[in-house]
Design a protein that fits this description.
About 15% of the residues lie in helices and about 40% in strands. With about 120 residues, it is an alpha+beta fold. It has one domain: Immunoglobulin-like, CATH 2.60.40. The strands form 2 sheets. The protein has a 4-stranded antiparallel sheet with strand order 4-5-3-7, with no helix packed on it. It is elongated, with a radius of gyration of 22 Å.
């Protein structure tokens, strides 16, 4: 009888480990990646850049706030339907982002803007 109980305990432990091993960790701002690259265009001495925002989290991320100091001086302003640019150098994505649906913004600047995610909320 004790061998059967020990075997059931081991089986239950194994099943529990397998089940929780695939569980999604809590999503946060560290799951968001921003990649900036040059576009082969120059406007009034400012290089055009594209920035792509995406998340490695299985949940969509919303209310993404990020530092964007310098973006307010862009001659080519990002599309307002995608990002809200505050005069204080803080921006907010106007859409959610996900693993399958990244968001790209285009802007111009003398140097690439150093974007840094400040906060984000998982939408799941």
């Amino acid at each position: 009888m004790s061998k059967a109980m020990a075997l059931m305990f081991l089986l239950a432990t194994l099943l529990c480990h397998l089940y929780t091993g695939d569980a999604q960790k809590s999503c946060d701002k560290s799951d968001i990646t921003i990649k900036v690259f040059k576009v082969s265009t120059v406007i009034e001495k400012q290089q055009v850049y594209a920035a792509i925002f995406w998340t490695s989290c299985s949940c969509e991320m919303k209310d993404v706030h990020f530092s964007c100091d310098g973006l307010q001086n862009s001659i080519l302003h990002p599309d307002r339907s995608m990002v809200d640019v505050d005069r204080s150098g803080i921006c907010t994505l106007a859409r959610t982002i996900s693993m399958k649906s990244p968001l790209q913004i285009t802007y111009s600047s003398e140097a690439p803007v150093n974007f840094r995610v400040l906060s984000a909320t998982p939408a799941c």
